[in-house]
Amino acid sequence: MEYSRHESKSERLDRNWSELLQELRVTQTGSQILTGFLLTIAFQPRFSDLDAYQVTLYMSLVFVAIGTTAVGLAPVSLHRRLFRSGEKDRVVEWADRLVKATLVGVAVVLAGTLSLVVDIVLGRTAGIIAAIACVAVVVILWFALPGHRGQRGE
């Protein structure tokens, strides 16, 4: 069964933009908190105890977190640059892509951060298993579950 709204193209774009803004509020906050957490690790006394693998994982996570934060903030800049230009369809299309990319970045940073912490506390094998489990949970909750429409075709 197909669900249809009775709205103009302009109303649909306004609704889509509003929904994207709500999603951006959550993803931007989450990515910024993760980034801030990661940035503080280097200034902790135990940071010098990390081995080469842990430092490499940490630095990779910092770069991915910073990139994810930049991508997550990009729709705001895009909207500002194209505000009142009559190109809301373009803004919504690009913001949608940027939010999806931000979610991928957040998933990588979540799994990687969990892996790093577990690696430090419990060891390498446990850290790798934790990252795999985190990725599995994210894939199920973020991709498989929304893609599953049930037997009623809803």
Give me a quick take on this structure.
This protein has helices spanning 9-41, 52-82, 88-122, 124-147. It has 154 residues and is an all-alpha fold.
Main β-sheet description: none
- How many helix segments? 4
Radius of gyration: 19 Å
Beta-strand residue percentage: under 5%
The assigned structural class equals mainly alpha
Low-confidence stretches: none
Care to describe what's here?
The chain is mainly α and 154 residues long. The protein has four helices and no strands. It is elongated, with a radius of gyration of 19 Å. The N and C termini lie close together (7 Å).
Write the layout of secondary structure elements.
Elements: H1 9-41, H2 52-82, H3 88-122, H4 124-147
List key phrases describing it:
single chain; mainly alpha; 80% helix
